[in-house]
Specification:
This protein has about 375 residues and is α+β, with helices and mostly antiparallel strands. Helix content is about 50%, strand content about 15%. It contains eleven helices and ten strands. It has a four-stranded mixed sheet, with helices on one face. It has a four-stranded antiparallel sheet with strand order 2-3-7-6, with no helix packed on it. A hairpin with an 8-residue loop joins β6 and β7 (about 205-215). The radius of gyration is 21 Å and the shape is globular. The two termini are about 40 Å apart.
Length: about 375
Amino acid sequence: MTDLLYSEIEEELRASVRALLADHCPPENTLARCETGEPYDRGLWRSLARDLGAASLAVPEEAGGAGASVREAAVVQEELGRAAAPTPYLGSAVLATTALLALEGEDGGEAAKPLASLAAGERTAALAVPLSAMPGTGVFPRAVRADSAGTLTGAVTSVADAAAADVLIVPAEGRDGPGLYAVEATAAALAVVPRTSLDLTRPVADVTFTGTAARRLAGAEQAPAALERALLTGAGLLASEQLGIAEWCLTATVAYLKDRRQFGRQLGSFQALKHRLADLWLEVVGARAAARYAAGTLATGDPDAPVAVAVAASHCGELAVRAAEECVQLHGGIGMTWEHPAHLYLKRAKADQIALGTPDRHRAALAALVDLPAPVG
């Protein structure tokens, strides 16, 4: 049975990450960085990835990592969601790292080369797939093609964290079938063009390859399974981020309604508002159970992981948006201003809702996984 409770080590990790984010990533700093168009704080990322070792949590010790698991990485993702922190953790430490972990041992250990530097927090990576890509489709991307010389041609749109990446992990179709390739961000004939994103704290970019030199990491034997594992883990941990968003929105709204007075009373004393917050709290509790179960099954390689991820992604995706909408509305006029951070959470929640599969698509996938037929007529 998967333990849904947080361990003592996980709580200590949470406290460390939360303290770091409180010092380096208060809302006013994030807002100021978003105004410059460069939301990533390199100093914060170094502290998080290198000093705290958050980038190495899911990497085995023999590969240079901390030897923890996806459960611990999910705790970090929760706190990043709670702070709406602008870091490339999802793209680098989750998606790209998971894909590389699944490739260890193939082609003379080529995957170990970028993996070691990612785990040490020395470099960042991005998995070159659209942020909307969903696990469980069984379709390998064909937007990029590799020739016999190992050069890539094609384009991928809306790649998360690509602009901050030192290396791109690229799914490509070659003469021998699908493969995964590593491309240095400094490579010639590579164009990374930032695009306007609803979520100001997680930039996306279009990536174009025009005969770009690449290093083959894996072929048809492992590439599809590695990509699927990366997307499944990403969707599962994104649910933890959405849980963190919802928790912050609920906590901030309760605190505001306790402090704000109207008609000579605390706003929080009105029964209608109490009921709305109580309903939201119950949904957050349910979302925590779903997100923790998904992380637990991913950590142990449980065959129930696809079902658990589909449940968590469909529930947490909608909850985060609802919690953020309630936060904006119940804060009244101040909740609609740029200076208040509520809009950062609403935008991230909405962007997350369509990332790595929408709730509707995950529910459809869940129905197929548990053999639940669609209604007739």
